[in-house]
Amino acid sequence: MKSVTKTTPSQSEISFSRPTDDTLLVRLSGSWKMQDKLPSHTEVEQQVASGPRVKRVAFDTQGITAWDSVFVTFVLKILTQNTQNQIETDRAGLPEGVRRLLALATAVPEREGAAKKAVRIPRLVRVGKGTIAAVEEAKGMLAFLGEALLAFLTFLRGKARFRRSDLFLIIQESGANALGIVTLISFLVGLILAFMGGIQLRQFAAEIYVANLVGLGMIREMAPIMTGIIMAGRTGAAFAAQLGTMQVNEEIDALKVLGLSPMEFLVLPRMLALVLMMPLLTLYADLVSILGGLVVAQGFGISATEYLIQTMKAVHLHDLAVGLFKSAVFGVIVAVSGCLRGIQCGRSAQAVGEATTSAVVMAIVLIITLDGILAVVTDVIGI
Q1: Of 56, 236, 320, 334, which is the most buried if we count CB atoms within 10 A?
Q2: Are 280 and 274 in contact (CB under 8 A)?
Q3: Does residue 270 contact residue 339 with C-beta atoms inside 8 Å?
Q4: Closest CA relative to residue 24, chosen from 33, 13, 14, 32
Q5: Do residues 235 and 334 make contact, with C-beta atoms less than 8 angstroms apart?
Q6: H or E element that contains 24
Q7: Is a pLDDT exceeding 60 seen at residue 5?
Q8: CA distance to 44, 128, 134, 161, per residue, from 120 (Å)
Q9: Per-residue pLDDT tens digits for 215-268
Q10: What does each C-alpha distance from 226 to 18, 97, 330 come to in angstroms?
């Protein structure tokens, strides 16, 4: 009779012996609990396949000191494996509690089709489904933009139906209430930009051009982008969550029944609020970031007067206009992304979370992409 023994680092032990040529005795000892590092059930399969044909598998568990459901699962896998290979299993050597649990587990056969089966989808099918989904997504976005444009034209004619108090409340939430985070981020970005630029420019004794770097960089690009990203994560997410929750509670359906357009009553005030507030927040971010650059410039021996004069020489009115125009466009993007995902939200709490995440990601991607396009366009037309 030959014996093979394997021990895991946590004292779980499995060994094999053959009392007869067609019987495999699996001897288990030590602790067999979830926190232990246990052997794999495939070792039993390897032992069955390694020698003469095995017709019966028995257990010896007298050396087991502790066990839990992991041990039951281990034995159950061996039972399943033996059944598939038409090998008899002798459960007499198992602990009484394990035998009872196995009897319960195998009393009712598994319903056919209950187990999940991995289905391999051909690559061409996946590409086709992705393309169809992208087209449907683009069609939905274009339809939403069209409805938003019609609602805006209705507003210009003075016939849009929404509560003015809602508009002022949204303006307060997306404007004044956002000053704190805009101040912090803009100041730090201006400070970092000035510090990194100052270190490089000092090698050429050109520290004064830190003012140019911060002024142009923040006013034309960074301030609109950073403000847009802040508003996407803060206000755009809030829009998606608000409208998504209304969708779950069927409040949007109730508005339609009452004859009120959700585009005019819900989307239009949010879009107007961000279009109004984004340029103002960006202008505020410009000033704060220049202040951050001024603080760092002091460390490079540049006086406040020199810094401000150099900033005024570098930054022109059209640079400020380009930055403010971008911020207004980014405001539309944030509002449309948040409201679109909120309106498209499903009827569950999970759908609200997914709509919120999707709104933020969509807004940030569109902001970065559109900023790159606008940077090229403004360079081509010379502004």
Answers
A1: 334
A2: no
A3: yes
A4: 14
A5: yes
A6: strand 23-32
A7: no
A8: 30, 15, 22, 51
A9: 999 999 999 999 999 999 999 999 999 999 998 888 998 998 888 899 999 999
A10: 72, 63, 10
3-state secondary structure of 14: strand
Burial 74-104 (b: 16+ CB within 10 A, else e): bbbebbebbeeeebebeeebbbeebeebbee
d(CA 322, CA 327): 9
Nearest C-alpha neighbor of 342 from the set 329, 364, 327, 357: 357
Query: Collapsing DSSP states into helix, strand and coil, what is residue 16?
Result: strand
Tell me the Ramachandran region of residue 298: left when phi exceeds 0, alpha when psi lies from -120 to 50, beta otherwise: alpha
Q: Which long-range contacts (CB under 8 A, 24 or more apart) does 43-50 make?
A: 43/6, 43/14, 44/16, 44/78, 44/81, 45/81, 47/4, 47/16, 48/24, 48/85, 48/87
pLDDT digits (tens, 9 = 90+) for 72-117: 888 888 888 888 888 888 888 888 888 888 888 777 666 666 666 6
DSSP 8-state secondary structure symbol assigned to residue 205: T
Looking at residue 66, its pLDDT comes to 85
Secondary structure letter of residue 131 according to DSSP: H
91/60 Cα distance (integer angstroms) = 9
CA distances from residue 340 to 67, 139, 251, 270, 311 in whole angstroms, order as listed: 54, 12, 16, 12, 40
- Which 3-state string (H, E, C) describes 26-93? EEEEEEECCCCCCCCCHHHHHHHHHCCCCCEEEEEEEEEEEECHHHHHHHHHHHHHHHHCCCEEECCC
pTM of the shown model: 0.68
CA distance 363 to 343: 15
pLDDT for residue 1: 45
